[in-house]
């Protein structure tokens, strides 16, 4: 499978997303039409595994560490959605804001792995929400789609940068001042 074939595979999903408001009802509709264990969800998941193995998906980062990459730029073919995929293991990502929302397909690689506390399936963040995307209980891939490819990273409270690992350490008031590594905002997620 190549990028063009992958884009064709996810077209029913991008068509549905681009025709609807980015809200909880969209998450419900994605789960109803393309549930985990259903043909479309499973075909996309399988294609992601094959693309990572082929080296054109999650091509950025270091083996054994966080992996990421934009697969499809926003365009007419995807209803203005960009498509990115990250592969993370027990990781807290860079705090970011979704100006127009974010639609995620959670694909655990480790049984029981969670993304922001959610299992395998769909997750929709409404416009103007923000979070530190977090994979816990193991490793997961997350395919995420951004309307117009928009995402805003907040790198306030940066305490240090580690270029050899593409991470920044943040001190978080939300975490009692704990310093923790996150993916570099310019790099991914």
> Biggest sheet: strands, sense, closure?
7 strands, antiparallel
First-residue to last-residue Cα separation: 24 Å
Number of strands: 13
CATH architecture name:
Sandwich
Number of helices: 3
- The helix/strand series, from N terminus to C terminus, equals HHHEEEEEEEEEEEEE
Net shape: globular
Q: Strand fraction band?
A: 35-45%
**Alpha-beta content class:** alpha+beta
User: Helical residue percent?
Assistant: 10-25%
Give the total of domains. Answer: 1
- Kindly report the CATH topology: Jelly Rolls
The CATH class, by name, is Mainly Beta
Can you tell me the CATH superfamily? Jelly Rolls
**What is the overall pLDDT average?**
84
Write down the Rg. Answer: 16 Å
Low-confidence segments, ≥5 residues, pLDDT <50? 156-189
List keywords for this structure.
alpha+beta, Jelly Rolls, 3-stranded antiparallel beta sheet, globular
What does this entry show, briefly?
Helices cover 22% and strands 38% of the residues. By secondary structure, the chain is an alpha+beta fold.
Structure description:
With 189 residues, the protein is α+β, with helices and mostly antiparallel strands. The protein has a single domain, classed as Sandwich (Jelly Rolls), CATH 2.60.120. 22% of the residues lie in helices and 38% in strands. The chain has helices spanning 3-18, 24-33, 39-54; strands at residues 60-61, 67-72, 81-92, 96-98, 102-108, 114-115, 121-125, 129-131, 134-147, 152-153, 158-162, 167-171, 179-183. Strands 1, 2, 3, 5, 6, 7 and 9 form a seven-stranded antiparallel beta sheet that branches. The longest helix has 16 residues, at 3-18. Residues 156-189 have low confidence and may be disordered.
